[in-house]
Amino acid sequence: MCELPAFQRGSDDHRRIADLEVSTAILASREQFYLGYTLLVLNQHVEELFDLDQALRQQFVEDANRIAEALNKTFSPLKINYCLLGNTLRHLHWHLIPRRQTDPTPKRPVWEDPIPHVQLSENEFRQLAHDIRANL
User: Fold this and answer.
1) Helices marked H in the chain — which ranges?
2) How many angstroms separate the CA atoms of 39 and 84, rounded?
3) Among residues 1, 55, 106, 132, which one has the fewest Cβ atoms lying within 10 Å of its Cβ?
4) Cα dist. 93→39, 82, 105, 121 in Å?
5) pLDDT tens over the chain, length 136 residues
6) First-last CA distance in the chain
């Protein structure tokens, strides 16, 4: 994950929201059915939260908090879901998911059912990233 061009600091990827203190925020490519679904990827390769020293761990959580607050200001969701999994991609990254009352199951995890595919254009991704970035 840390090798992918979209996650390189300073990248001009159309899904890129911001480079934060210790992580990079980008919009998820296929999950925009949940508009604003964001991935926050730690800039160094670490697989477990407990492998971070306390200062880095606190900053990673603070980066997640900053993005969550920006998502909240941008979308006024019912709730922000925070997920730190790593079962598939063994690299620390948050999934930050704005949830709305209009979601099919707003009080259940998004992964219980297949996520409908919504394809945004590069310009739509850029505008969405800009809107979130404006609220950081």
Assistant:
1) 54-75, 122-133
2) 10
3) 55
4) 7, 10, 24, 24
5) 666 666 666 677 899 999 999 999 999 998 999 999 999 999 999 999 999 999 999 999 999 999 999 999 999 999 999 999 888 888 999 999 999 999 999 999 998 988 998 999 999 999 999 999 999 9
6) 24
Q: How far is CA 85 from CA 21, 45, 128, in A?
A: 21, 15, 25
Kindly state the helix (H) or strand (E) to which residue 27 belongs, with its residue range: strand 23-27
**136's tokens:** 């950081």
Domain 5-133: give its CATH code.
3.30.428.10
> Strand order of the sheet with strand 16-19?
16-19, 23-27, 38-42, 93-99, 79-83
Residues in a beta bridge with 97: 81
- Which of helix, strand or coil describes residue 13? coil
Query: Pairing state of beta strands 23-27 and 16-19?
Result: antiparallel
